[in-house]
Specification:
single chain, 85 residues, mainly alpha, two-stranded antiparallel ribbon, 3 helices
Length: 85
């Protein structure tokens, strides 16, 4: 959905999760396993906490958000797994 990522709020992202959907800036990003792992983590979080998780971004913001930190850790784990293989 390249058009979405032209909107001001989305410009800084390469991927975005919306409950059961992962949106990517381009099809080429499907090969970015770290990004996909990060967004899959958000899908899982929203399935477990469908109201609390999205509202947390209003409450604590983006950079200090515990859900975002968890997704970053998942992405780092994927990076480590890729380095091992």
């Amino acid at each position: 959905m390249p058009w979405l990522f032209r909107l001001p709020w989305f410009r800084r992202f390469d991927g975005y999760s919306a409950h059961w959907t992962i949106l990517l800036r381009s099809r080429a990003l499907l090969d970015d396993e770290q990004l996909v792992a990060h967004e899959l983590c958000h899908v899982w979080q929203m399935q477990r906490h469908p109201v609390r998780m999205p509202l947390s971004y209003l409450r604590v913001g983006y950079s200090d958000n515990p859900y975002e930190a968890e997704a970053r850790r998942m992405s780092e784990r994927m990076r480590d797994l890729e380095a091992q293989s």
